[in-house]
Amino acid sequence: MKMYVGNLSFKTTKQDLESLFSQYGQVTDVHVPTDRESGQPRGFAFVTMDSADSMKKAIDATNGKELDGRNLKVNEAQAREERSGGGGFGGGRPSGGRRY
């Protein structure tokens, strides 16, 4: 029962999100991804609720709601698409594509 919460202010905390969404049911997890370089929040989060009913209530109540000066975009999280490995250099050859 995981939701995507987008358009977050960089000052919105995990605790802020837990407080907001716990009004609609039990929050079991809040994940706020951060940038690897700066450590700053990336402007979105994933909130997991204990049931589909709680999640639906939370989405209906919070999608478009203002939090910390931003209008939230809240919907059910989608499964992440498979990504291909590799960086486009083909077959693990050294850059330049020459064979040695």
Automatic annotation (TrEMBL):
<dbReference type="Pfam" id="PF00076">
    <property type="entry name" value="RRM_1"/>
</dbReference>
<dbReference type="InterPro" id="IPR012677">
    <property type="entry name" value="Nucleotide-bd_a/b_plait_sf"/>
</dbReference>
<feature type="region of interest" description="Disordered">
    <location>
        <begin position="62"/>
        <end position="100"/>
    </location>
</feature>
<protein>
    <submittedName>
        <fullName>RNA-binding protein</fullName>
    </submittedName>
</protein>
<feature type="compositionally biased region" description="Gly residues">
    <location>
        <begin position="85"/>
        <end position="100"/>
    </location>
</feature>
<feature type="compositionally biased region" description="Basic and acidic residues">
    <location>
        <begin position="62"/>
        <end position="84"/>
    </location>
</feature>
<feature type="domain" description="RRM">
    <location>
        <begin position="1"/>
        <end position="79"/>
    </location>
</feature>
<dbReference type="InterPro" id="IPR048289">
    <property type="entry name" value="RRM2_NsCP33-like"/>
</dbReference>
<dbReference type="InterPro" id="IPR052462">
    <property type="entry name" value="SLIRP/GR-RBP-like"/>
</dbReference>
<dbReference type="InterPro" id="IPR000504">
    <property type="entry name" value="RRM_dom"/>
</dbReference>
<dbReference type="GO" id="GO:0003723">
    <property type="term" value="F:RNA binding"/>
</dbReference>
<dbReference type="InterPro" id="IPR035979">
    <property type="entry name" value="RBD_domain_sf"/>
</dbReference>
<keyword id="KW-0694">RNA-binding</keyword>
